[in-house]
């Protein structure tokens, strides 16, 4: 192992420890049912990867690129992709929900059918609110995409680095998942299967966010996309599925379907990129 | 671009510190209420709203101060001859103004989160979000004037807009329908309900479209300012 790889491994270990320790302590001590009683605490947890990034740089005297650029010019399409991806995902989630998850779906009782002004608001507001509150997710992106993934890429190939960073990111959510966030508590092999699904979800999600970061040389579009996914993932479900609808399966199986959709979207998008690169005679890379 | 934004931070550090101090002092007034005062939660929420409005107002008033350091012919011609050109100078100012606005929003959200933790104040995200949109809209209107006529003349334009708005409010209070003020409690309940998400139908579309419209207006404002920058530089000392 070369010196560069050794120092990258050391930095990854230090970073992971510093990102996990405060997050686990806070989540295990102050979270109830997977969420914090107060927003301040949950927002604080999301800043722990950023703090770990800064501390690891200070401890290991790492002067690598911080990816804190603000470069809108020439990168508009990536920012638009960051805003559109959550809406595409949300539309597919709603379609899957209507087709497979909701009992006796009735469009008549949906918000879209009953209140057009509110529907327009519900369609446009979450993405706008997600975009302007990007700084809440900035903490996570500064850690995972701004430090962990580039360090992992020094040790292994890019696809492998994305998988490993996705697993680390998923495990970081483990205390919240084990308390019932995302998937509830009533599912087989709880909480291990929930944590595994979260890791798979983070791998596919991380691929997209890493792509945005790499293409723009900045974590800003990834932070915007992350924030919009958090805010807008239920946009179309809220519009099309009547409030109070009964579901055939519990949160775990719904989550599983949504993860499959996210994986399918990212896979199709990757395939499109690879085909386009082949057509242009370029290198095939993620 | 990072270099120009770094330059903005360094040359305007005193203004930034002043903004942070003013905002912090106001947030302290919001937090440090004497225990014996026993303020009802509704009044406390109203106090919170006023705090956020005031913080955005003060920061908004101070934002044009970031132009003063660069209002010299020597700098304007130097940056215009650099690879970044006038467009880079204008872009850095627009991004820096956005950074200050987002910084104000972060500060208000942290104050709101802490107030919720300490005093159980409700979530006022909708108010803070709308204040941010309004602030960006006002800057989008103001910045082309500042680039064309300088920050002092731009300030005069802003004062004129405020005077017109003030006169419009006075005219409405004198001649308009003010029956809604007859029952202050009902009005207050309506305001609280609004910030709790009970929004009248007519406002839904406006609130949904306004952030996107403001984004487009801000971009158009930037393009106009790029065209006006060198003309404005003729007025510098």
The percent of residues in helical segments of chain A reads over 70%
Q: Count of DSSP helices of chain A? A: 13
Low-confidence stretches of chain A: none
Overall 3D geometry of chain B? globular
User: Most extensive interface: pair and counts?
Assistant: A-B, 25 and 28 residues
Beta content of chain B: under 5%
Would you mind describing this structure in some detail?
- The complex is a heterodimer of chains A (286) and B (237).
- Chain A is mainly α.
- Chain A has helices at residues 3-30, 39-46, 48-60, 76-101, 111-114, 116-132, 134-155, 158-172, 174-178, 192-216, 220-232, 235-240, 251-279, and strands spanning 31-32, 35-36.
- Chain A has one domain (3-279).
- Chain A is globular, with a radius of gyration of 20 Å.
- The longest helix of chain B has 51 residues, at 125-175.
- Chain B starts with a helix and ends with a helix.
Keywords:
heterodimer; A: 286 residues; mainly alpha; 13 helices; B: 237 residues; 8 helices; 81% helix; 0% strand
SSE blueprint and pairings:
The complex is a heterodimer of chains A (286) and B (237).
Chain A: H1 3-30, E1 31-32, E2 35-36, H2 39-46, H3 48-60, H4 76-101, H5 111-114, H6 116-132, H7 134-155, H8 158-172, H9 174-178, H10 192-216, H11 220-232, H12 235-240, H13 251-279
Antiparallel strand pairs in A: 1-2
Helix pairs in contact in A: 1-2, 1-3, 1-7, 3-7, 4-11, 4-13, 6-11, 7-8, 7-10, 7-11, 8-10, 10-11, 10-13
Chain B: H1 2-11, H2 13-31, H3 41-62, H4 73-81, H5 85-119, H6 125-175, H7 184-195, H8 201-233
Summarize it.
The complex is a heterodimer of chains A (286) and B (237). By secondary structure, chain A is mainly α. Chain A is built from 13 helices and two strands.
């Amino acid at each position: 192992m070369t010196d560069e790889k050794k120092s990258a491994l050391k930095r990854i270990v230090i970073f992971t420890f510093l990102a996990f320790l405060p997050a686990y302590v806070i989540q295990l001590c102050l979270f109830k049912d997977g969420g914090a009683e107060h927003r301040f605490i949950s927002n604080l947890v999301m800043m722990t990867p950023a703090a770990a990034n800064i501390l690891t740089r200070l401890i290991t005297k790492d002067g690598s690129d911080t990816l804190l650029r603000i470069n809108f010019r020439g990168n508009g399409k990536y920012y638009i992709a960051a805003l559109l991806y959550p809406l595409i995902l949300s539309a597919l989630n709603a379609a899957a929900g209507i087709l497979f998850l909701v009992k006796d779906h009735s469009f008549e009782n949906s918000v879209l059918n009953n209140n057009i002004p509110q529907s327009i608001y519900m369609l446009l507001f979450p993405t706008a609110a997600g975009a302007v509150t990007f700084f809440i997710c900035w903490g996570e992106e500064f850690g995972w995409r701004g430090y962990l993934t580039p360090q992992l890429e020094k040790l292994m190939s890019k696809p492998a680095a994305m998988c490993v960073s996705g697993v680390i990111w998923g495990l970081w959510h483990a205390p919240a998942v084990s308390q019932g966030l995302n998937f509830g508590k009533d599912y087989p092999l709880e909480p291990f299967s929930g944590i595994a699904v979260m890791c798979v979800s983070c791998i596919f999600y991380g691929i997209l966010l890493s792509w945005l970061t790499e293409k723009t040389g900045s974590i800003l579009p990834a932070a915007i996309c992350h924030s919009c996914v958090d805010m807008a993932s239920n946009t179309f479900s809220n519009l099309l599925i009547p409030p109070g609808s009964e579901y055939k399966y519990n949160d775990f199986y719904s989550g599983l379907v949504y993860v499959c959709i996210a994986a399918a979207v990212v896979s199709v998008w990757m395939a499109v990129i690879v085909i386009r690169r082949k057509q242009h005679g370029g290198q095939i890379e993620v | 671009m990072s270099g120009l934004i770094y330059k903005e931070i360094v040359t305007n550090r005193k203004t930034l510190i002043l903004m942070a101090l003013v905002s912090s002092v106001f947030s302290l007034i919001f937090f440090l209420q004497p225990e014996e005062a026993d303020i009802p939660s509704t009044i406390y929420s109203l106090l919170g709203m006023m705090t956020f409005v005031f913080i955005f107002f003060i920061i908004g008033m101070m934002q044009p101060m970031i132009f003063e350091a660069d209002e010299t012919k020597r700098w304007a011609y130097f940056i215009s001859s650099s690879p970044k050109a006038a467009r880079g100078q204008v872009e850095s100012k627009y991004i820096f103004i956005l950074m200050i606005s987002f910084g104000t929003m972060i500060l208000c959200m942290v104050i709101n989160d802490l107030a919720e933790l300490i005093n159980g104040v409700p979530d006022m995200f909708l108010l803070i979000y709308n204040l941010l949109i309004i602030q960006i809209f006002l800057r989008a209107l103001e910045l082309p004037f500042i680039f064309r006529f300088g920050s002092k003349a731009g300030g005069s334009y802003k004062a004129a807009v405020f005077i017109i708005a003030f006169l419009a409010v006075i005219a409405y209070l004198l001649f308009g329908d003010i029956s809604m003020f007859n029952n202050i409690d009902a009005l207050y309940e309506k305001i609280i309900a609004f910030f709790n998400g009970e929004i009248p139908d007519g406002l839904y579309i406006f609130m949904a479209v306004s952030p996107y419209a403001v984004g487009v207006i801000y971009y158009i404002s930037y393009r106009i300012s790029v065209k006006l920058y060198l003309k404005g530089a003729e007025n510098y000392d």
